[in-house]
Amino acid sequence: MLKRKKDGGFTLIELMIVIAVIGILAVVLVPKMGGVKDSAKYAGVTTNAKSVEAYVVANIDRWAKNSTDAEDVIEGQFTTGPNKLENPLDGTAIIFATPIDDAAAKGVVAVTGAASPAGGITITGYGSSTTDILYQNTVRRN
């Protein structure tokens, strides 16, 4: 009687089952991964806004004492050099602008106001439009 020697490899049916399971997992997970990527981009806008806010908090008293135009200083600090922040939604370098319309607002961090005793500097991080505010805070002098 002849005995058949087993190779120890996988059968065709086992390989097909593994491929089918991987395909089902891919169909379920791939659409969800797109949402994670968008969430990370929006979190980047909030992070940029909070970075600008920390800079404003550290310097607002000095700017008020010297009557410095804070908006120009902030824009110069974060649009060039090693502290340059980029718009995470579209990759553009300039993120400080006052949004005029929804198209201009996408991913922008807007800095408005003055370091005067009566006023404050408002930092706003926009998502996809001017109504989609991801982060907003006003920093006032002590």
From TrEMBL:
NCBIfam families: IV_pilin_GFxxxE. The keyword Membrane applies. It holds the Pfam family N_methyl. Keywords: Membrane, Transmembrane, Transmembrane helix. The chain crosses the membrane at residues 12-30. This is Prepilin-type N-terminal cleavage/methylation domain-containing protein. It comes from the Bacteria. It comes from Desulfitobacterium dichloroeliminans (strain LMG P-21439 / DCA1). InterPro entries: N_methyl_site (IPR012902), Pilin-like (IPR045584).
